Amino acid sequence: MFDKMLQISMLYDFYGQLLTEKQQEIVQLYYGDDLSLGEISEQLGISRQAVYDTIKRTEKILFEYEEKLGLVNRFTSNNRNIEEILRIVEGIENNYHIMTAEVKFVLEEIARIKQIANEILEK
User: Fold this and answer.
1) Which of 33, 67, 74, 85 is the most buried (most CB within 10 A)?
2) How does 82-108 read in b/e, with b if 16+ C-beta sit within 10 Å?
3) pTM of the predicted model over 0.85
4) Closest by alpha carbon to 27, among 64, 63, 1, 52?
5) May I ask which residue range the UniProt record assigns to the signal sequence (predicted)?
6) pLDDT at 45 over 70
């Protein structure tokens, strides 16, 4: 269940603005605020079944957006790749003592790559 909640949360972060206001509100109340179907139903003055149907329909829509656009997949893939770049760079930095003084330029460039990768990950 936690995995699905995380998935929906990420999909909502990327595609939430493409949903109707009512869909956004219900998804936020259910996944963001952790309210039950009954609590949402009472708060919005609609049936519990309407809340359930909206959640299921909205989940389907979010997964369809991801299937077509792939933004979440691309984002997570880019993050994994940048993290791998950082691991490689750190491995090189940790072994710099075996290099000659002539490669100072390479070490400076490695530092720049590392800085850029870290900036991307922080955004």
Assistant:
1) 85
2) beebeeebeebeeeeeeeeeeeeeeee
3) no
4) 52
5) none
6) yes
